[in-house]
Amino acid sequence: MGNYVGKSMKRVEDPRFIQGKGRYVANLTLPGMVYLAIKRSPYAHAKINSIDASAAEALDGVLGVFTGQDLLNDGVGALPCGWQVPNIKIPVQYALQVDKVRHVGDRVAIVVAESPYIAYDALDLIEVDYDPLPAAIGAKAAMDAGILVHDEIANNLSYTWEIGDKAARDKAFAEADHIIELYLINQRLIATAMEPRAAVAQWNEFTEEMTLWTTSQNPNLTRVVISAFTLQIPEHKLRLISPDVGGGFGSKIPHYPEEILVPWAARKLNRPVKWVSTRSEAAVSDTQGRDHVTKARLAVQNDGTVTGLDVNTWADNGAYLSIVAPLIPTAFYITLLSGLYKIPGIYGNMWGTLSNTVWVDAYRGAGRPEASYVVERLMDLAAQKLGMDPVEFRKKNLIPAEDFPYQTPVALQYDSGNYQGLFAEAEKLSNYAQLRAEQAQARQNGRLVGIGVAGCIEASGPAPSAVAGALGGVTGFWESGSIRVHATGKVTVLTGAHSHGQGHDTTFRQIVADQFGIKPDDIDISHGDTAVITNGMGTYGSRSTSVGGSALVRSAEKVRGKMMKLAAHLLEADEADMAFDAASGNFHVKGSPDKAKSFGELAFAAYTAHSMPAGMEPGLEEDTYYDPANFTYPNSAHIAQVEVDKETGHITVQKYFAVDDVGNVINPMIVRGQVIGGIAQGVGQALWEGAHYDSTGQLVTGSLLDYTMPRADGFPMIQTSRTVTPSPHNPLGVKGVGEMGTIASTPTIVNAVMDALAPLGVQHIDMPLTAEKVYAAIHAANGGGH
Amino acid sequence: MYPPKFDYYRAGSPDEAVALVQEHGGKFLAGGHSLIPVMNLRLADPGALVDIGRLDMKGISSNGSGVTVGALTTHAMVAASGDVPTALSEAAGKIGDPQVRNRGTVGGNIAHADPASDLPTVLLALRATIHTNGRSIPADDFFVDLFTTALDEGEIITSVSVASEAANTGSAYAKLPNPASRYAMVGAAAQVTIENGVCAAASVAIGGLTPKATRASSVEAALVGQPLNSATLTAAAAAVTNDLDPDDILGDIHASADYRQQMASVFVRRALEAAVSRAS
């Protein structure tokens, strides 16, 4: 532990957020600004016969109504897919559709007007003549629907992917004492970030420079995509700014059509243009998450040893492929099927399909929760079949601590871990034996009390760029980190990682402060503006600290190296005799702490440059592009207790215990906050959330009146603890934490509910576990009829 | 989030409010928590709003035998009141979230007559009277159908009155909330009076699952004259089936009509149990 790393510093960004002083895109007003609104399809699938905008164009205050043809005439390019697995069929999609709409909310036309009120009035005046078509719905069903979302993509099958050891799998199932089978649905989710997306664009006709303020988790990456593919504004003439962003959960990774439409209109009309998504619009335009149908089998021996896992998954991508959509159910899903366990024979196979629904892309955890859910549901069913305690059953199959680094049969090499220690801590934190004793008592009293456990793995901190490239990535996954030491000893830090709630301003200050022995208040973190940060990859996949933080450490090391040489020169000492004291920030002669130069003195000396070592340039700033050597592998063991109301099917989460190993921890308070927030989100999937499309493709859960978000009153106080096995391959020894809670809590809660219902013989209910579904299962188990 | 254009008028008195609506058309605006969302979604286009929010119709007064709740009293005020029957404060406390309860009003709520709203069910069970600028209407006659009341054009609710609850009377509201909106999918309100160990009076209503809240006469009949033990409460609650026409029961993705029907007796029983425990 340094002066600051490892301490629960309060978040420096919070006073601003708590007092309503955040600066979001929607807060931005520019002189002469006009407002854009989007005419969206009310149909899931329809031919566009004609668009009559004459009445809208005639409305006072309307500057223009534009359609897809206007964009095509200007040469605006199609939205690209940035993850191209072999033989993938990528549907063409433009910012505005020309002849066909393919989901409710698909884009048909835009209005630009002097006020948002006029813009929305004008939308109502645009007459679109549609021929409605039947809709292809369902991750698996869409393949056989006989309805093509895109005429050129047969069976609505965009791509397939498979990985694993087929022979080992076949052997495992041939020799298995028991085969556990499970058919499950991992339902579609809507991210519902607190801040809806927004964009403002300003065109400078003289310099031909475009500035786009947008709610992006990765503004630099989006700039590359806009420059290279869609608007094709030269990268050096395009500035993206993502100021404060109110949550993303993956839904703010993609390059969105609105990021084309708003700047295009700004240039066309030579006026600043603003668009702010409504909540209803977000439900039919933000990328959604999950949506898998899976058939899985687990091979188990009588003694409880798991020998094989076979998984077939159909993943719905929606109507178009979003930017990294094909990554999520392939390299972020099948590769995680080994979980925490030593399973010799694993094979996974998936079909990536298209349907007449909103597109699907990364959503907190992104593929890894889906994998953990399959594995952890099967582990519970297997334990039950063998009559073993689910914790004991898992412990029997954990990868031994001495086997790290551990090569799984599904490509990944886990960096480090101590899963036995993790489970021991979870049993201790939850007082597991006592929980089971209380459950036995409750069952005797006729109560449906259940205890759920899940042990989960995540591959976080994507990713070695060469690995990404080999798996289909169009881009690399390094991160940039620059340190600019000013003459007065103050420090500006530039990072390509983008904070949209994670607390980078605090975490990165702690890291950099300890690198130099200075105060966090002397450091500012800059992110989110491509005019300041030249290149960067952004924040997702729990990568910011392990990849972005490591880049900062490397830059700090370079700066310190230069300061050491300068100090030796000024003290007339040999560099080999010098030492750096991290507590004081002094560079001194070994054994003589008084023969020292402070951080501030050296910063000043580097800029006055009155006496530099031979060949050394003035100045004190360094850049790093850090390409990680591997993913990091955070892991967790969560235990929860629930009670089911027999009369109604209502579930109450009574106790929740989370033990996570995220490697070294920079700020325990922020880490705990990430874990708790993640748990809430994962419990949301287990119990409440679900995007529901009807057979015509209408989104029934299109508003928060029908889409159930988790709320504080649905949770007990969550108890957390940690084990620490540092990652061996990054300088901070950190692993990711942003998604771990979400990954673990979903199976933990579903397992708990199934445990509560086990005495009735109920084996599985698909999420969300609504009261009615649970009631129906209880009712059926009790003999049905009423 | 951008409603169609409308004119805005603020009334200084109930008479002026009525005159403004007669002159300009449009709708009365109280707390706005039902009206403004549908306008923002462009599902309603009233053209004009007559703001009655500052009229002197806010507050709760009790004269010992009865309680009057002004039409502009917020749900939060009702929830915090010790004067109103427990079922009413309990129901008001379960409406929406704190922001809704601090803005939404009793009068606005019942004038809107949302089938999933909590207050109509409670007011039926409490045999409340709804007072307007021209007349007094028993709750049984006030709620007509889905989003439809006995109010005439230009008629404005001024207050709601209910009988005070004596020590031997208890009431309660039990609710199966929609998990997303927290509106009632099933809501049951009950008020019971106990004399000499038996039920002297019972008033029960069920709502949330039908186009309008319904008096549970069969349940009431099964209670009066009976000792209020677990067996009679369960049997009486089961009789709610007789008060519901299965064809009337609403269903959606959160709760099918079949499930709601089965939950009706559960929540009637829970309301009865709580009401009995409060009557001492």
Rounded average pLDDT of chain B: 96
CATH architecture of the largest domain in chain B: 2-Layer Sandwich
User: What is the helix fraction of residues of chain B, given as a range?
Assistant: 25-40%
Unreliable stretches of chain B, pLDDT < 50, 5 or more residues? none
Alpha-carbon distance between the termini of chain B? 50 Å
**Beginning-to-end CA distance, first to last residue of chain A:** 64 Å
Total count of helical runs of at least 4 residues of chain B: 11
Question: How many DSSP-defined strands of chain B?
Answer: 14
Radius of gyration of CA atoms of chain B, rounded to a whole number: 19 Å
Our estimate of the beta-strand percent of chain A is 15-25%
What's the order of the H and E elements of chain B? Answer: EHEHEEEHHHHHEEHEEEEEEEHHH
The coarse overall form of chain A would be: globular
SSE class of chain B: alpha+beta
> Percent of residues of chain A in helical segments?
25-40%
Rg measurement of chain A, Å? 28 Å
Largest sheet of chain A: 7 strands, mixed
Structure in words:
The complex is a heterodimer of chains A (786) and B (280). Chain A is 28% helix and 24% strand. Chain A has three domains: 15-133 and 194-247 and 252-283, Aldehyde oxidase/xanthine dehydrogenase, a/b hammerhead (Aldehyde Oxidoreductase, domain 3, Alpha-Beta Complex), CATH 3.90.1170.50; 288-462 and 630-781, Aldehyde Oxidoreductase, domain 4 (2-Layer Sandwich); 478-626, Aldehyde Oxidoreductase, domain 4 (2-Layer Sandwich), CATH 3.30.365. Chain A is globular, with a radius of gyration of 28 Å. In chain A, helix 11 packs across helix 12 and helix 17 crosses helix 18. With 786 residues, chain A is an alpha+beta fold. In chain A, the strands form seven sheets. In chain A, strands 3-5-1-12-9-10-11 form a seven-stranded mixed sheet, with helices on both faces. Chain A has a five-stranded mixed sheet with strand order 7-15-14-13-8, sandwiched between helices. Chain A has a four-stranded mixed sheet with strand order 18-26-27-28, with helices on both faces. Chain B contains eleven helices and 14 strands. The longest helix of chain B is centred in the C-terminal third of the chain and has 22 residues, at 257-278. In chain B, helix 10 packs antiparallel against helix 11 (257-278). In chain B, strands 4-5-10-6-7 form a five-stranded antiparallel sheet. In chain B, strands 11-12-13-14 form a four-stranded antiparallel sheet. Chain B folds into three domains: 7-51, Uridine Diphospho-n-acetylenolpyruvylglucosamine Reductase, domain 2 (2-Layer Sandwich), CATH 3.30.43.10; 60-163, Uridine Diphospho-n-acetylenolpyruvylglucosamine Reductase, domain 3, CATH 3.30.465; 169-278, 2-Layer Sandwich (Enolase-like, domain 1), CATH 3.30.390.50. Chain B is globular. Chain B is an alpha+beta fold and 280 residues long. Classes of the chains: A alpha+beta (786), B alpha+beta (280). Chain A binds chain B through residues 116-117, 119-121, 124, 278-280, 647-648, 650, 688, 692, 700-701, 704-709, 770-772, 775-776, 786, and chain B through 1-2, 4-5, 41-42, 176, 178-181, 252-256, 259, 262-263, 266.
